[in-house]
Amino acid sequence: MSVYDSRLQQLRQAMQQAGIDIYVILSSDPHLSEYLPEYYQARAWLSGFTGSAGSLVITADFAGLWTDSRYWVQAQQDLAGTAFILMPWGDPQTPDMLEWVAQTAQAGQVIGIDSQVMPQSQFAQWQNMAQAHQLSIQGQWDLMTSIWVDRPALPQAPIYVHEPPFALRDVKQNIQQVRQAMAEQQVQSHLLSSLDDVAWLLNLRGQDVQYNPVFLAHVLFTEEAVTLFVDMAKVSAKVAHHLYQHQVDVQPYTHLAQALAALPEHSRLLVDPNTVTAGVLQHAAQTQWVFAPNPSTGIKACKTPAELEHVRQVMAYDGAALCAFFAWFEDTVKQRPIAETEIHEQITAARAQQPHFVSPSFGTIAAFGANAAMPHYQATEQAHDMITGNGLLLIDSGGQYLGGTTDITRVVPVGTPTPEQKRDYTLVLKGMIALSQAVFAKGVTGQQLDVIARMPLWQAGVDFGHGTGHGVGYFMNVHEGPQSISWRRRADATPVPMQPGMITSNEPGLYRAQQWGIRIENLIACVEKEQNDFGHFYAFESLTLCPIDVRCIETTLLNSAEIDWLNAYHKQVYERLKPLVSGSALQWLEQNTQPLATTNCSN
User: Of 21, 70, 332, 586, which sits with the fewest C-beta atoms within 10 Å of its C-beta?
Assistant: First the structure.
């Protein structure tokens, strides 16, 4: 019996003792974070699947993992030799978790859910399903504590102030903007549980979540006060003074339930049902819940002109680090095989030499050959490949700097690329260039823009399973809402128009299972284009500064406008990065920003 089957057996015993027939485990915490503190990584501990997204449903004779197409190949590998079964979410032949439970549960059975880590919106769907099928839900069960005897403690890293010149917004102004939105909604209180919103609101940062500079906390707005609920041991005298200056009260993290219960009966409480959990919200059952997006989410998504200037400088630092890294890589791969794991070490070391670097913004994806067909592949010391021979190497990496957050993907050939690889690479590049050049009317959403990037691939009869773009924070989460570029969205999600100041990734891809994967990614900012009698128009500014490898391009598939864009981009990259690099890094930059000839292009 594998260690994971043994843990599954223990969980089933705990379920039986608790009278639970069906138990649901989410990849989640009380703040619905993307990257979780180790304490909340129950799904990974139980099943062995280490991807960032996935949920489990456990019964007496079934253990299923639901995860999306980014992780199907990885999940099959991680679950091999265990009793856990992959349920490929998004496959038309596979019901989602809710549908599966509705189809298989018997009337009278009990579903166990830890509502402390389930969004209110999702919990309501489970309640409706349970009522329709004569099931009952017990929402106060965290059965993992009883079997996970060496469960890690909650993080204890100290909080720190994000200070000028990088912090460019005043806390009092942030609070005033949120209060104005509350007045427009005619609410008396507002609960913030999403960690990026809390950190942004108060100009504070932390280290509780890997890669994201945030800390575990809630903020409650009432008509009288703004209160931060946080582990008091993390609050230094400097942070306490910062909060005092801005008239923010501080209470222990565990006192939130009491504060919610003390809100006036029938008063109106503004919450985002997708960022507040059912278990937290139940303590305010006496209030009238007003469901709407957090006002702070939309405000912080639109970076100010001053913030964008810092981001542009950060992109130059990041590009200089990448020049140094790629110079090292190109020289070293000719001399010896390189482990995929070494890429993260070297690229992080290069970034650490740049001003104001804090940490990676996510775990580097360094995927060679067939591994790159898994969009979120993660090499480990126990399981990785050596980079040698012929193949494509995909590197998706990013950095957290005091003045911004970066995220970039490049694909480089090792050895000689095949004609098929060059064709796929060029199709992805065409999609990336098309979105980079987009001009669109005010009010257009990312969902509508997505087809621009996909069109060259769709015309060739290929596609990719992930979104084309996600929002990016300002020294904050590398994945930030509310905007995204994807034609797929939840049925209950409201499309979000692009607005000036929004930073979004532009990352189409193409993945051939067991062969190779390609993704080319820049960060782009929505900017003003023009306003005339026909309307108000926006465009995108490419922020990322790093050459795009031309060795995999099939130039006959590019038109002259696309080559002109690429040459102009490389000219800008060279001019911006040249003052910041020297030696082999400068030589690499010069070699990789040479103009591409248009003689063999398609027109």
Answer: 332
Amino acid identity, residue 176?
Answer: Q
Conformation bin of residue 488: beta by default, left when phi > 0, alpha when psi is -120 to 50:
beta
Q: Tell me the pLDDT tens digit for each residue of 285-323.
A: 999 999 999 999 999 999 999 999 999 999 999 999 999
Indicate the residue type of 113: I
Alpha carbons 539 and 439: distance in angstroms, whole number:
5
Within its chain, how far is the Cα of 132 from the centroid?
A: 34
Mean per-residue pLDDT of the chain: 95
Dist. CA 48–CA 417, nearest whole Å: 35
pLDDT in the model for residue 52: 82
Choose among 437, 193, 215, 475: nearest CA to 356: 475
Q: Give the Cα separation of 372 and 354 in Å (integer).
A: 28
| Tens-digit pLDDT profile for residues 247-280 | 999 999 999 999 999 999 999 999 999 999 999 9
Cα 482 to Cα 293, 495, 554: the distances in Å are 9, 9, 36
Alpha helices in 246-405 (DSSP H): 256-261, 278-281, 295-301, 305-332, 340-352
As a residue count, the chain comes to 603
Per-residue confidence (pLDDT) for residue 526, from 0 to 100: 98
- Provide the 3-class DSSP secondary structure of residue 509: strand
What are the two backbone dihedrals, phi and then psi, of residue 108, each rounded to the nearest 5 degrees? Answer: 95, -10
pLDDT digits (tens, 9 = 90+) for 349-362: 999 999 999 999 99
Residue ranges of the chain whose pLDDT lies below 50: none
CB count in 10 Å sphere of residue 419: 8
Amino acid identity at 585 = A
Contacts of 342 (CB under 8 A, 6+ apart): none
Say what angle helices 583-591 and 560-577 make with each other, to 10 degrees: 160
Whether the Cβ atoms of residue 65 and residue 50 lie closer than 8 Å to each other: no
The conformation of residue 394, written as its DSSP 8-state character, comes to: E
Q: Which long-range contacts (CB under 8 A, 24 or more apart) does 586-595 make?
A: 586/323, 587/327, 588/323, 588/326, 588/327, 588/330, 589/323, 589/547, 592/326, 592/547, 592/549, 592/550, 593/547, 594/570, 595/567, 595/570, 595/571
Six-digit token pair at 390? 């012929």
Q: Is the pTM here over 0.85, yes or no?
A: yes
